[in-house]
């Protein structure tokens, strides 16, 4: 990424309880120090340390495992949107607790699933 004379090194970081700006700053300083010592890029570069963000779609088993217990927004291929708390998941389906009941959705029916911010 970035111009050929000023490439961008982008590092995505994740931890189960979330990433803070302070976490990104600390990781950025440590990586910058290492890059200065090792000097793998002889030209100028831009270093970005960021988290994938809440709007990143959940796709893999690992994504759903990390999202267990969180409030999700699920859009089905039919266009229907469902909001519920992820209570369980498998490679074939997810279980969401809605205010009125627990539902199971086939993962193949999900167009997009994301974590909803809870303020």
Structure description:
The chain is an alpha+beta fold and 119 residues long. It has helices spanning 21-38, 61-67; strands at 2-3, 6-12, 46-50, 71-76, 81-89, 93-97, 102-106, 110-115. It has a 5-stranded antiparallel beta sheet. Strand 4 (71-76) and strand 5 (81-89) form a beta hairpin. It is elongated, with a radius of gyration of 19 Å. The mean pLDDT is 86.
The value of Rg in angstroms is: 19 Å
Strand content: 35-45%
Order of helices and strands: EEHEHEEEEE
Largest sheet: 5 strands, antiparallel
Strand-pairing-aware structural class: alpha+beta
- The averaged pLDDT comes out at 86
**First-last Cα distance:** 33 Å
Catalogue the unreliable spans: none
Task: Going across the biggest sheet, name each strand in turn.
Answer: 7-6-5-4-8
Tally of alpha and pi helices: 2
| Percentage of residues assigned to helices | 10-25%
Shape: elongated
Q: Please count the beta strands (DSSP E, at least 2 residues each).
A: 8
Task: State the gist of this model.
This protein is α+β, with helices and mostly antiparallel strands and 119 residues long. Helix content is 21%, strand content 38%.
List key phrases describing it.
119 residues, alpha+beta, 3-stranded mixed beta sheet, 38% strand, elongated
């Amino acid at each position: 990424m970035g111009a050929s004379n000023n490439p961008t090194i982008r590092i995505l970081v994740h931890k189960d309880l979330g990433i803070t700006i302070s976490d990104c700053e600390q990781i950025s300083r440590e990586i910058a120090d290492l890059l200065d010592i090792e000097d793998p890029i002889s030209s100028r570069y831009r270093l970005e340390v960021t988290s994938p963000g809440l709007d990143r779609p959940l796709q893999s088993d690992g994504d759903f495992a990390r999202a267990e217990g969180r409030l999700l927004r699920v859009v089905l291929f039919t266009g229907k949107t469902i909001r519920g708390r992820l209570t369980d998941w498998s490679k074939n389906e997810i279980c969401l607790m809605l205010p009125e009941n627990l539902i199971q959705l086939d993962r193949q029916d999900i167009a997009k699933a994301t974590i909803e911010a809870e303020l």
